[in-house]
């Protein structure tokens, strides 16, 4: 709970730091990208504080390449 | 161009040295000694040679596509959609690499230096400093690299000069005692980190002044960095022996612990850890910079500066989950990393080359 609050607080701080300048200069496209990145970052960061584990992209990469890696290792041993 | 900064040839070399030494100086000696045993240093030199060949490929590409970054190259040679898809893959590759490098420093700190500090806090503070450094673009970052490189060299030379009393020449024998296959395994493990990652410099070369001579500057940087890695591998074997070097997660740190001159110069290891903070700082900065620049170019943003902090949040989350334990990382590094990096290091660049040839043929 405390972790989630701290992350949300950090997110608000980041928005307060970057957003006003973007809006003042009418860079609405940049602001939209910024907000989507911020939303993604907040979701992922809060997820790590939850008991439910965040899916690890490295798992998929290992699943894809490990059989071939084993094969290569066998050839070289 | 998204980044208005320009860097000089000398700065390119400096960045290449720091990038090559990067996190590998901490983790590479262990896997090298694990695979190639006493011949770790031969494997390191062999990997350097292969790495330099790859740099030659990138230099050729940079000449074919003047002033284009990776995204531009992909789009020019493969078309807007396919090129865009390949660029998104590169974004993923560099972002994962950033998370892995951040995790390397976190693991090192929590196992060796600050065992009771939660790893999240080490990541947060390290990443904040990286963001502060890279936020204003590559030019100030490269200037900082120039200031820090002499310190890295000073510490490195100190280590090399102070260690000879601990050398055991017999640790090197037998040379090639198990044939060439273990050496090749070691070569593969070092080639996949850091040499395949040098493809990142395709994002940097367009910013170099006097681009016609950038090839030699990059080659020099990777060569110097690679020689430093080979020397560290050699020292680990000479001082610790293949067995001990294999069993340590961070042999170069144990190496620094061995420095002992007349009961006076002792416990230099944290000073030596300074080298790794600096090299990992610059490697992480470059990886994060490349990811953010690719994202900016793909989304057509006018400035990437505001994106570093929110992307940093995702990077923090990813660096925490990216491997549950050190054994998982060892599996990844020894069995998966090479094949996973190969398309990015050689596959796509060759594809760009072929695409350029076909486009030229068609007019």
From TrEMBL, chain A:
Keywords: Membrane, Transmembrane, Transmembrane helix
Protein name: Uncharacterized protein
Superkingdom of this protein's organism: Bacteria
TM segment ranges: 31-50
TrEMBL record, chain B:
Gene3D superfamilies: Amino acid/polyamine transporter I
Predominant localisation class: membrane
Any one of the GO CC terms: membrane
Transmembrane segments: 12-34, 40-61, 81-101, 121-138, 145-163, 183-205, 217-242, 273-295, 307-326, 338-358
UniProt topology in membrane: Multi-pass membrane protein
Cited InterPro entries: Spore_GerAB
GO BP: any one term: spore germination
One Pfam family linked to the record: Spore_permease
Assigned keywords, A-Z: Germination, Membrane, Transmembrane, Transmembrane helix, Transport
Cellular compartments annotated: Membrane
Family: Belongs to the amino acid-polyamine-organocation (APC) superfamily. Spore germination protein (SGP) (TC 2.A.3.9) family.
PANTHER family: SPORE GERMINATION PROTEIN A2
Name listed for the protein in its UniProt record: Endospore germination permease
């Amino acid at each position: 709970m405390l972790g989630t609050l701290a992350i949300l607080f950090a997110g608000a701080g980041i928005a307060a730091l970057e957003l006003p300048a973007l809006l003042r200069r009418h860079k609405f496209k940049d602001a939209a990208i910024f907000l989507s990145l911020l939303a993604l970052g907040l979701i992922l960061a809060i997820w790590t504080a939850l008991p439910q584990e965040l899916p690890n992209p490295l798992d998929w990469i290992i699943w894809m390449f490990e059989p071939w890696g084993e094969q290569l290792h066998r050839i070289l041993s | 161009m998204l980044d208005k900064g320009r860097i000089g040839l000398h700065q390119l070399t400096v960045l290449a040295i720091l990038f090559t030494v990067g996190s590998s100086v901490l983790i590479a000696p262990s896997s090298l000694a694990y695979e190639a045993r006493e011949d770790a240093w031969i494997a390191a030199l062999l990997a350097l040679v292969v790495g330099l060949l790859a740099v030659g490929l990138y230099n050729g590409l940079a000449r074919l596509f003047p002033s284009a970054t990776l995204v531009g190259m992909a789009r020019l040679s493969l078309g807007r959609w396919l090129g865009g898809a390949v660029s998104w893959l590169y974004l993923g590759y560099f972002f994962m690499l950033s998370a892995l490098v951040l995790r390397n420093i976190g693991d090192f700190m929590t196992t060796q230096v600050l065992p009771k500090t939660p790893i999240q806090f080490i990541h947060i503070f390290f990443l904040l400093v990286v963001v502060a450094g890279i936020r204003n673009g590559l030019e100030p970052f490269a200037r900082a690299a120039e200031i820090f490189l002499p310190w890295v060299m000073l510490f490195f030379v100190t280590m090399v000069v102070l260690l000879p009393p601990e050398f055991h020449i017999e640790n090197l024998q037998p040379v090639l005692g198990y044939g060439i296959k273990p050496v090749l395994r070691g070569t593969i493990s070092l080639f996949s980190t850091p040499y395949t990652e040098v493809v990142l410099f395709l994002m940097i070369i367009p910013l170099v002044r006097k681009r016609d001579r950038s090839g030699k500057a990059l080659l020099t940087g990777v060569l110097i960095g690679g020689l430093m890695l080979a020397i560290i591998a050699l020292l680990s074997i000479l001082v610790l022996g293949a067995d001990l070097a294999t069993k340590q997660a961070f042999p170069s740190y144990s190496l620094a612990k061995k420095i002992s001159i007349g009961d006076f110069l002792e416990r230099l290891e944290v000073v030596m850890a300074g080298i790794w903070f600096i090299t990992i700082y610059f490697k992480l900065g470059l990886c994060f910079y490349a990811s953010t620049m690719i994202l900016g170019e793909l989304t057509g943003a006018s400035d990437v500066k505001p994106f570093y902090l929110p992307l940093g949040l995702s990077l923090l989350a990813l660096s925490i989950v990216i491997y549950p334990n050190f054994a998982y990382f060892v599996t990844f590094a020894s069995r998966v990393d090479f094949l996973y990096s190969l398309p990015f290091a050689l596959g796509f660049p060759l594809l760009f080359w072929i695409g350029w040839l076909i486009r030229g043929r068609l007019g």
